[in-house]
C-alpha cells in the first residue's frame, strides 16, 4: 500500500525574505528538509542506539525501514544528550580505550544506575562543577582519592569492598607463597608410605571397592522377577515372554527358591591365583586380578603416582572461601595446612575476621583488626594493613556503608561490550553517545 500526500507550495511576496518559496508542513508528519517522518526517525534512532551501523541497517531492512549504516550513525551522532540532574552518590572507575596505553574515566550515578559521563579530562574538574555530590564510591587508586579530596572535600569517600577483598587476597597469596615449604611438608607427611593395614575378610559378594559385584546384582534381579510372577500363577512360557528371558533360564530360576544357591558358583569360582592373593589379603573381584596379570604379561604396569603437591593458588582459594562452602576434602586440606604452619593458621584467622567486618558492616573495628595483624610476623599482611591506614576514612566507610562500585563495574562491562560490538572502530564521540544513551 502506498500513501500519496499532497501539500501546497507557497511563495513569499516580501522582497526582503530569504525564502522565496516554502512548502506546507503537516504537524507530526513532516519537517523542513527532512527525508523521514518524525516517527520513522525515532524508530531508526532507537535501532541506531542499540546496534549502531551495519547491524542496525540489517535489522531496519528486515523491519521494512530502508536506511544505510551512514544514516544510522549520523542519527546517533546528532542525538541530543540531556545533562545529568543533581548527583548525590557518584561512582568512579576507569576503563581502557587502548589496553595498556589509553584509559578514560566512567562516572555513574549510583542512585539512578545511569552513566553520566565518559571523561578523559581530570575527575577533579568534573567534581568542581558538581558541589552537590555527597558520596563518592571508588577503587583504591590514589589518583581518584586525591582528586576527590581536593575538588569535593564535602563528599564522603567510600572504598569499594570488592577491591579491599581483592587487595587482601593478593597479600594472602604472597604469604602462602613465602610459606610454600609448609605445604610441601604437609603433603609429604600425608602421602609417605606407612605400615599396611590388615586386610578385611574376603567376600565374594563385593568388589574391590566394597560394592556389590555387578554379576551378583544381575542374578538377584533376574531371580526376583520370575519368583514374583510364579506366585501369581503365571506359566514359565508366559514369564519368559514377559521378561524377555530364555525359557531355560526362567526354569532354572523357578526351581531355585533361594538365590544364594545360584550365587555359589559365581562367588566361589577358583583360579590358580585364588589361594595366593587371598593369603596376601586381597578381597576384591577376580577381574581386577585378571587386568593386573594382563598388564604384567605386557610389561606395562606402573605404580600409581602420588597426588600432586597443592599449589599456592589452590591453598589461597581454600583460605579465601567461606568455610561452609568448602568441600570435605578441601576443608581437610586446609585443616592440615593450619596445623602444620602457625603463620598460615594466623593468616586464615585474619582473613575470616576481615570477612566478618565486611559482612556485618563493622568498619569501626578496623583498628582492632590491624593491631591483631601487627602481632604476627606476616610482612605481606602488615603491608596491606598499613595501606589501609593511609586511606582509613574511605576504608571504614567502605566496610560500614552499603554503597559499592558494583554498578560501576557492571557499566564498565557494558562499555567493553559496546566497544567489541563495533570491532574497536568506534570513535570517541560515537562511543560516548552509545555509553550515555540507555534504551
TrEMBL record:
Entry-linked InterPro entries: Transpos_ISL3 (IPR047951), Transposase_DDE (IPR002560)
Where are the annotated segments for Disordered? 186-207
Superkingdom in the source lineage = Bacteria
**Transposase IS204/IS1001/IS1096/IS1165 DDE domain ranges (all copies):** 90-185, 314-435
Q: Name one Pfam family in it.
A: DDE_Tnp_ISL3
Under NCBIfam families, the record lists: transpos_ISL3 (NF033550)
This chain's protein is named: Transposase IS204/IS1001/IS1096/IS1165 DDE domain-containing protein
Q: Which species expresses this protein natively?
A: Streptomyces nodosus
